[in-house]
Amino acid sequence: MRLLVTGGAGFIGSNFVHQTVRERPDVQVTVLDALTYAGDKTSLAPVADKVTLVEGDITDAELVDRLVGESDLVVHFAAESHNDNSLSNPWPFVQTNLIGTYTLLEAVRKHGVRYHHISTDEVYGDLELDDPAKFTADTPYNPSSPYSSTKAGSDLLVRAWARSFGIQATISNCSNNYGPYQHIEKFIPRQITNLIDGIKPRLYGKGENVRDWIHVEDHNSAVWAIIEKGRIGETYLIGADGEKNNLEVVETLLEIFGFAKDDFDHVKDRPGHDMRYAIDSSKLRDELGWEPAYTDFRSGLEATVEWYKANEAWWRPSKDATEAKYAAAGH
Ligand code: NAD
Ligand code: TDX
């Protein structure tokens, strides 16, 4: 089987490629990645001899048409993915998340290729802290940020292309991922690399906001379950019942590093900051028999800390620039 992975040099995409090479030797993997600030060739170094990396943009219709025409399956991870960046400069989000997805859909339609669309729970907006509800595939879309609204728009393009043109598509909306190879602009690796450098973790606002954490390996095993067993045209929500508020996450990291639980700084809150995400993944579990393997958040976090300690060469080159960007935004 010939598989095209867009965004395969990013966090979740590179882990997906590693898992695929490890567990499915019959799959021939091509990665299409523009290698933006968030993409890194070295994330694919351990599988470099087994994967073809094409450096290019998903908005390049000619290139996309050729690569999709040479594939049996497209899994679309490529995106501008960081909420804070979308607040300071929304344009790349419109370009990549909307125009890029449109470009892929047109190629998939033309060549009749199976397509899986990777999306986020943020398309549903947020929940109150005391709301017993969780997101399901029937929750109305209500995105808050330029990032989540462009992801929501991309999901709606997929639904329309499936209904109007009959493309063979599935969609997954996953909660917050953690694990190796995550860009250090994101919450958990930012705090881990700060702690390695002796800098205090930075908590936005009061730290009450809740995210539903899932290990990246579990996200990717769910994606494979949907590709193999999911019903065409369906949306599946991926989550591992990992709700934690940001304060709890920072306190756990401080404990892992052996520092006092209150040794962190409160910084300026994110404008429009979503309060809580929570996924009801029963459709995925009941219909497809999927289960997460990483059910203990603390040990998953410990392993992630070890990975960042052991792979300083991977993240060190982007640390100063990332922190300079945060300093300019008051975070
Ligand atoms: P990331 O920012 O780490 O990686 C994105 C990758 O896409 C990078 O390699 C980048 O170079 C590439 N890319 C960006 N623009 C491109 C373009 N125009 N053409 C080709 N390649 C381009 O992101 P991530 O955290 O790995 O997220 C991957 C996908 O998963 C995204 O679609 C995101 O919305 C979704 N998602 C992420 C999370 C999470 O917690 N990180 C949760 C749910 C869903
Ligand atoms: O330094 C920080 N301090 C802090 O308190 C940073 C960077 C973040 N935060 C807070 C903001 C959020 O409540 O931590 C939480 C997580 O922040 P991010 O890592 O920026 O993730 P989030 O905005 O929740 O979005 C993530 O999950 C859904 C991914 O970046 C998205 O790509 C995915 O769709």
| Low-pLDDT regions | none
Q: Mean pLDDT across all residues, rounded?
A: 98
Category from helices, strands and their pairing: alpha/beta
The topology string of helices and strands comes to EHEEHEHHEHEEHEEEHEEHEHHH
Architecture of the domain at 2-178 and 213-238 in CATH? 3-Layer(aba) Sandwich
Number of strands: 13
- Tell me the quaternary state: single chain
Report the bound ligands by name, code or SMILES.
nicotinamide-adenine-dinucleotide, thymidine-5'-diphospho-beta-D-xylose
| Assigned CATH superfamily of the domain at 2-178 and 213-238 | NAD(P)-binding Rossmann-like Domain
Rg (CA only): 19 Å
Helix content: 40-55%
Q: In percent, how much strand structure appears in the residues?
A: 15-25%
Alpha-carbon distance between the two ends: 45 Å
Query: What is the CATH C level class of the domain at 2-178 and 213-238, in words?
Result: Alpha Beta
Shape: globular
Q: How many strands, which pairing sense, and closed or not: the largest β-sheet?
A: 7 strands, parallel
Q: What is the topology, as strand order, of the major beta sheet?
A: 3-2-1-4-5-6-11
EC number: 4.2.1.46
GO molecular function: dTDP-glucose 4,6-dehydratase activity
Cofactor: NAD(+)
Family: Belongs to the NAD(P)-dependent epimerase/dehydratase family. dTDP-glucose dehydratase subfamily.
